[in-house]
């Protein structure tokens, strides 16, 4: 079996309700501890000095809103990618197949 990961479209939908991120429920639950470490460090970075966070993440001042998103990753509602991302690539993926 081959799995191909597609980049998301620029058009995104945000879930307005639902459960927060549960790392143990994701594929390969044995990675939960490593995922938790990455999320903790990303949150810490995003809460720190803005100029450092932008530089480390390689994003511009115009994308500083992404730092706020990063700060809330563990508390916002979540949904499977195929329910959130839209566009030609995700339509072609046909997630029901």
Descriptors:
mainly alpha, 97 residues, single chain, 42% helix
Please state the CA-atom Rg, rounded to the nearest Å.
Answer: 15 Å
In whole angstroms, the N-to-C terminal distance is 13 Å
Structural class: mainly alpha
Q: What is the number of helices?
A: 5
Number of strands: 0
Classify the beta-strand content into a percent band.
under 5%
Oligomer: single chain
Which series of helices and strands comes N to C?
Answer: HHHHH
Largest sheet: none
- What's the rounded overall pLDDT mean? 85
Poorly predicted ranges = none
Shape: globular
Write up this protein:
This protein is 42% helix and 0% strand. The protein is built from 5 helices and no strands. It has helices at 32-47, 50-57, 65-71, 81-84, 88-93. It is globular, with a radius of gyration of 15 Å. The protein starts with 31 loop residues before the first helix and ends with a helix. The model has no long low-confidence stretch (mean pLDDT 85).
Short description:
The chain is mainly alpha-helical. It has helices spanning 32-47, 50-57, 65-71, 81-84, 88-93.
Give the helices and strands, then pairings:
Layout (H helix, E strand, L loop, with lengths): L31 H16 L2 H8 L7 H7 L9 H4 L3 H6 L4
Helix pairs in contact: 1-3
């Amino acid at each position: 079996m081959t799995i191909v990961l597609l980049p998301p479209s620029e058009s995104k939908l945000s879930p307005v309700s639902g459960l927060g991120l549960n790392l143990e429920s994701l594929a390969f639950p044995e990675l939960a501890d490593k995922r938790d470490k990455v999320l903790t460090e990303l949150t810490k970075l995003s809460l720190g000095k803005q100029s450092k966070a932008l530089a480390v993440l390689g994003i511009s001042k115009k994308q500083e809103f992404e730092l706020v998103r990063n700060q809330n990753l563990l508390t916002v509602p979540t949904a499977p990618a195929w329910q959130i991302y839209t566009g030609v690539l995700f339509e072609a993926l046909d997630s029901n197949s």
